[in-house]
Every structure is written in structure tokens, then in C-alpha cells.
Amino acid sequence: EVQLVESGGGMVQPGGSLLLSCTASGFNFGANVMTWVRQVPGKGPEWVATIAQPGGLKWYADSVKGRFTISRDNARSSAYLQMNNLKPEDTAVYYCNVQQYWGQGTQVTVSS
After folding, report:
1. Distances in Å between the alpha carbon of 46 and those of 17, 73, 89?
2. Which residue, 17, 20, 62, 74, is most buried by CB atoms nearer than 10 A?
3. C-alpha–C-alpha distance, residues 6 and 23, integer Å
4. CA distances (Å), origin 1, targets 4, 7, 13, 25, 101
5. Strands 10-12, 106-110: parallel, antiparallel or unpaired by DSSP?
6. pLDDT in tens, 59-77
7. Hey, which residues does 98 pair with through a beta bridge?
8. What is the biggest distance separating any 2 CA atoms in the chain, rounded to whole angstroms?
9. Whether pLDDT at 55 is above 90
10. In the predicted model, what is the mean pLDDT of residues 22-36?
11. Distance of CA 103 to CAs 15, 16, 18, 25, 45, Å?
12. 53: confidence class by pLDDT, cuts 50, 70, 90
């Protein structure tokens, strides 16, 4: 059974930082592309970032480029999203995704 468990969300002031983690199990983590997606209630999901392999290709949405960094640790079957210089518009539930599977999400709130 594929499981994705996100953690690390919380409330932070504008300009602050958070590190999101996604711990995976039930599939060959190292062979799969990992993606972070976020969603605001009442709006559609927004792709944030994707990583293909350790040290390999990474892609970012324009809205987060230069502020967010996606990474992975295959030995720990984990993916990460380092979020710096957070803005109120980054407020959303952040989900980890692989293939058709999704985690339960972790809430990020950016507010003064």
C-alpha cells in the first residue's frame, strides 16, 4: 500500500521559512518523480515543484522560483520542500504526490 505522510506545516509570519517533509512507503521511492502541489479551499490545485532524482532535474512554478527548494533523500524515502521568504499568498494545504497517490496534506499559513 502506497503511503505519503506530509509534515512540517504551521503558521509563520511573512518572510519566514518552513521545511515540509514527505515520508513515503509502499513503492520504489528512488525510481519515481516526486511532486509538491498546494491548494487553497475553494480553488483548484496549484503545482509547486517536481524533482526527478537525487541531484537531478528540478522544476518550479514561477510563483515560488527562487524562494522554494525541492529535494529528496532516497535512503530515507523522503521528499522535502524548503520554503523561504514566505508570503501570505503561499497560504494553502501542501500535498505530496507520486503517480496517482496523494498524502493527507499539511497546512501552511503565512500571516502577520
Report:
1. 20, 24, 12
2. 20
3. 7
4. 10, 19, 37, 8, 10
5. parallel
6. 999 999 999 999 999 999 9
7. 101
8. 41
9. no
10. 95
11. 26, 24, 18, 11, 14
12. confident
Distance CA 32, CA 67 (A): 24
Q: Identify which of 99, 89, 112 has the alpha carbon closest to the alpha carbon of residue 38.
A: 89
Check residue 66 and give left, alpha or beta (phi > 0: left; psi -120 to 50: alpha).
left
* 33, amino acid identity: V
Burial degree of 63 (CB within 10 A; 0-12, 13-18, 19+): middle
pLDDT at 96 over 90: yes
Contacts of 12 by beta carbon, 8 Å cutoff, 6+ apart:
18, 86, 108, 109, 110
Provide the residue type at 107 as one letter.
Q
